[in-house]
Design brief:
The structure is a single chain. The protein has helices at 14-22, 37-47, 55-62, 76-85, 100-113, 127-138, 167-170, 174-190, 277-291, 299-318; strands at 3-8, 27-33, 50-52, 66-69, 89-93, 117-120, 144-152, 194-202, 213-220, 225-231, 238-245, 248-253, 257-261, 266-268, 322-323. With 327 residues, the protein is α/β, with parallel strands linked by helices. It has a nine-stranded mixed beta sheet with strand order 14-13-12-11-7-10-9-8-15, covered by helices on one side. A six-stranded parallel beta sheet has the order 3-2-1-4-5-6, sandwiched between helices. Helix 8 (174-190) crosses helix 10. The longest helix is centred in the C-terminal third of the chain and has 20 residues, at 299-318. The structure holds nicotinamide-adenine-dinucleotide. Residues 8-13, 33-36, 39, 55, 70-73, 75, 93-94, 120, 122, 161, 177 line the site of nicotinamide-adenine-dinucleotide.
Length: 327
């Protein structure tokens, strides 16, 4: 069976989804909706799909099997709830919503409609991440004792859509947007949940009212300490995770690869042939629809990332360590 897909939001991430669909015979892109007509029509022209300015009109007319929601974060809840009620399975971009309360509203709507929900936590599908997860699970490097995750990139550049820098629309700054990936990566790689958070954030960006950097001290449900350092200020770009074991280390560098140390120096791990991560993500969603099962990055799972992010902002405000309810 082939599934018809409609895309809501023709922004930066839209082409990753559309390019992945082009590689898959089981999916056909039907239409795109965006309130920015120029952007929507450009994507519609490039991919030969219909354009709508109103996503509700698109869903009513096109009746897609799957809706991809790639909108500013403050619109995720309202759009997901509406599309679920129309009977669409959902691929909702990360972060799932602005709050745990909004996540629960989405989860209730999805359950009531009997549709599947996947959140676009793409970390689960990058080949080097999958290799690292298998290596960790093998136990070959011994006991995991600490994790260090660092991300630097200039967050306030003028090409960044303005909504990303408005707390009310984005839910936060670099931590909400890219910290969501770090928190997800730590939880998913270690098959655990983060249960304690101490955070200190900085607000030195030249635009907007969101944090531009911060340092998080986290503890996983298996008692592993993890440190996340993020900076959106001018600096040297970096996106790297190190996992420290009692018999070795793993170094994971986004879009570059994986290194492992068993004897005091790092050696690169040969990359595996792999499909586009966005194809793997769709395959996971299709598996969940066909087998009536949860995808790897389910709504319940993605809610746990939002619970940690809420604790991050709470900890920064209060100055205290915060516990995260693990469900
Ligand atoms: N998985 C990843 O690695 C990854 C990477 C980038 C972005 N994202 C996520 O994808 C989502 C979108 O991010 P982006 O970078 O594409 O943002 P963007 O600002 O480039 O795109 C959002 C689009 O939504 C449109 N829009 C706004 N309100 C609308 C409405 N009511 N109806 C229809 N269209 C509307 C905007 O005009 C814009 O074109 C966010 O949740 C973001 O965090 C995920």
């Amino acid at each position: 069976m082939s599934y018809r897909v409609a895309l809501i939001g023709a922004g930066i991430i839209s082409r990753n989804h559309l390019n992945a669909m082009r590689q898959m015979s089981e999916l056909s892109a039907a239409a795109v909706a965006d309130i920015d007509e120029e952007r929507g029509r450009t994507v519609s022209g490039e991919y030969g799909i219909a354009y709508y300015s109103d996503y509700k009109e698109m869903i009513r007319i096109e009746k897609p099997d799957i809706a991809i929601i790639a909108l500013p974060h403050f619109l995720h809840e309202e759009c997901a709830v509406w599309c679920a009620a129309q009977g669409c399975h959902l691929l909702l971009e990360k972060p799932m919503a602005l709050s745990v309360k909004q996540c629960d509203t989405i989860l209730d709507a999805v359950k009531a409609a009997g549709v599947k929900l996947m959140i676009g936590h793409t970390q689960h599908y990058w080949p080097a991440n999958l290799q690292a997860k298998a290596l960790i699970a093998s136990g070959e490097l011994g006991k995991l004792v600490a994790i260090q995750d660092t991300r630097h990139l200039y967050y306030f550049h003028h090409d960044r859509p303005a909504w990303f820098l408005e707390k009310a629309k984005a839910g936060g700054g670099i931590l909400m947007n890219l910290g969501a990936h770090s928190i997800d990566k730590i939880q998913w790689l270690t098959d655990s949940r983060i249960r304690k958070v101490k955070a200190l954030l900085s607000y030195e960006g030249e635009r907007g009212d969101v944090e531009g950097g911060g340092c998080l001290f986290l503890e996983t449900s298996s008692g592993i300490p993890a440190v996340v350092v993020q900076s959106g200020y001018a600096g040297v770009p970096k996106d790297e995770t190190e996992l420290i074991f009692d018999h070795g280390m793993i170094r994971l560098v986004s879009a570059k690869g994986l290194w492992v140390s068993r004897n005091g120096r790092y050696e690169e791990v040969k990359p595996q042939d792999s499909l586009d991560p966005f194809v793997l993500q769709f395959e996971d969603l299709l598996r969940s629809i066909r087998q009536d099962a949860e995808p790897d990055s389910s709504g319940e799972y993605a809610r746990s990332v939002i619970a940690v992010l809420e604790a991050v902002y709470r900890s920064d405000e209060t100055g205290d360590e915060q516990s995260v309810d693990i469900i």
